[in-house]
Amino acid sequence: MSSEFDVKNALKMGLLTLVAVATTFTAVTNYQIKGLLAGGAAPSANAPAEAPAQDQNEPTKKPSEYHFGIPYEKAVKAKKPMIVLFYADWCGFCVRFMPIFEELYNNHKDQFNFVKVNVEDKKYEAAVKKYEIAAFPTVYMVNTKTDKREQLKNENFGDMAKLNELINDFYKKNK
After folding, report:
1. How far apart are CA 41 and CA 38, in angstroms?
2. Which listed residue, of 28, 101, 103, 136, carries a Cα 20 to 30 Å from 94's Cα?
3. Quick one: CA dihedral 116, 122, 124, 130, positive or negative?
4. 35 lies in which domain range?
5. How many domains does the chain have?
């Protein structure tokens, strides 16, 4: 039994080591490719690693620092449908998505209540479970009268025309 336990532990450690090596290799390769795409040379093994320069157009404001929309508790009781964003402040994808979400708000605030839900806030624990949130950002369009909901797919987040089309279609079906 002891040798069986040792074999299992050895296999687990081997797998963890393999994952760590693969992750490191991927990170180094991505860093080198980004350098090449930016017109520079790939850093040599002896060169000190430099942090990539921050893109001047990259948003830096945390989702919680944006002040638009209404509280979740008020939105679920309203007759107007809602668009709810589940986010975490530490999530880089959420930070980059917020200007898009703000533009959606500006385009559709007359038809929808917009809501931001910080998944780390304990008061939203039930909502996070109800919507089965497992990744961030996650956006749902919700008919608050019928609880019919439709998730906006992350693959569409970079296409404002597609997002507007999906939101308008949901509104037409659920007003």
Report:
1. 9
2. 28
3. positive
4. 1-53
5. 2
- Helix/strand/coil for 118: strand
> What is the tens place of the pLDDT at every residue in 37-82?
444 444 444 444 444 455 667 888 999 999 999 999 999 999 999 9
Q: Are 116 and 87 in contact (CB under 8 A)?
A: yes
Give me the sign of the Cα torsion angle 145, 81, 141, 133.
Answer: negative
3-state secondary structure of 152: strand
Do 78 and 153 fall within a single domain? yes
Cis peptide bond prior to 99, omega within 30° of 0 = no
Q: Could you tell me if residue 40 is inside a domain?
A: yes
Compare 34 and 77 and report the one with higher pLDDT: 77
Q: In what order do the strands lie in the sheet with 138-143?
A: 113-118, 82-87, 138-143, 148-152
Q: How much is the average pLDDT of 6-32?
A: 54
The amino acid at 116: K
Tell me the Cα Rg of the chain. 22
Q: Domain check: are 46 and 95 in the same one?
A: no
Dist. CA 141–CA 151, nearest whole Å: 6
SS3 148: strand
